[in-house]
Specification:
D-Maltodextrin-Binding Protein, domain 2, 2 domains, alpha/beta, 325 residues, 43% helix, four-stranded mixed β-sheet, 13 helices, single chain
Length: 325
């Protein structure tokens, strides 16, 4: 555990924030994204509400840009109370809270609205209990966007259009099997190599969300973007159980309410960022294919689900997620 470096960073950052001296309770929150990113701004909105509702007694200091460490490190340190809060993707919790692995199943969520309905309802509460068993209190589920296919060759509107094409995916067995089930070829490679690999024809395309497609410059070399939304992985704001247990029930309620309200802020900011990125790439010549019938894509995932959803509990959870309206 990388406590020494993180603890030093916390002490240095805290020392520079004189405002913290006015607070009875100061909670330090980590995020890997840069200042201004929707997740960072979401936690800032939570901090503002908590400070107001507590009469200035509780302050949340947000440390963006991995100042306190990378996601997996900061999750571990939040479990042990070295830092108080963390914002991280469900993907980073896979080795700690097994149920989060199911959220990486392709086409599990029909849309972002469906994902929100699932995570904000009874299923989200059930998943939150699994985090508590690992000394983490799940406070809010943020939006991590949807991953989509993009390529340099042709518009993709059907599963048949993917046959034989080569796509970069993350080094993840589920992703590799997803591509095989769709009749395409998965090519895991570092993200930094994608641009040149598309440009030189080593691969035909890749998959990601609109902001990443835009900021990476991939839209310059792969102008066909298919809105199939094959993966939507939630983001989580969690607080250390050690810090949580020190709060009064009244303060805990202030935290929970502010966190849920901050999810609304974060999701709005994310939607705005997605829209801005889409408009930018379209203006630069990208073609966005939206009239995609996802039925065949979803049906093609049968062998993937059979391989990875193996227990009765997991099968029941997947069924309930799919049935959520």
């Amino acid at each position: 555990m990388k406590f020494v470096t993180t603890t030093l960073a916390v002490l240095l950052c805290s020392a520079g924030l004189a405002a913290a001296a006015d607070c009875e309770i100061t909670l330090r929150s980590s995020d890997t994204h840069p200042d201004g990113y929707p997740t960072v701004e979401g936690v800032k909105a939570m901090a503002a509400e908590v400070k107001e509702k507590s009469g200035g007694r509780i302050c949340i200091e947000v440390f963006p840009s991995s100042q306190l460490g990378e996601e997996k490190d900061t999750i571990e340190q939040t479990q042990f109370g070295v830092i108080d809060m963390v914002r991280a993707s469900f993907g980073s919790f896979n080795d700690i809270v097994p149920v989060t692995q199911l959220m990486s199943l392709p086409y599990l969520f029909r849309s972002e609205e469906h994902q929100h309905a699932v995570m904000d309802g009874p299923i989200g509460e059930e998943i939150a209990k699994a985090f508590e068993e690992k000394d983490l209190i799940a406070l809010a589920y943020y939006d991590g966007g949807a991953r989509n296919f993009y390529n340099s060759q042709k518009p993709i509107q059907s599963v048949e259009d993917l046959k034989g094409m080569k796509f970069r995916v993350m080094q993840n067995d589920v992703f590799v099997d997803m591509m095989a089930a769709l009749g395409a070829n998965a090519t895991p490679m570092p993200y930094g190599e994608v641009y040149s690999s598309i440009q030189t024809g080593v691969i035909d395309g890749a998959e990601n969300n609109f902001p990443s497609y835009d900021s990476s410059g991939h839209a310059e070399v792969a102008k066909y973007f298919t809105l199939d939304q094959h993966l939507m992985v939630p983001e989580l704001v969690a607080v250390s159980k050690i810090a949580w247990d020190k709060l009064s029930p009244e303060d805990q309620e202030i935290m929970r309410t502010a966190a849920k309200n901050s999810a609304t802020v974060q999701r709005r900011l994310w939607a705005e960022q997605e829209k801005a990125s889409e408009e930018k790439v379209v203006a630069a010549g990208a073609e966005v294919i939206k009239d995609v019938d996802k039925t065949a894509f979803i049906e093609a995932m049968a062998p993937v689900y059979e391989k990875y959803v193996t227990t009765p509990e997991a099968q029941d959870l997947v069924k309930r997620i799919q049935e959520t309206q």
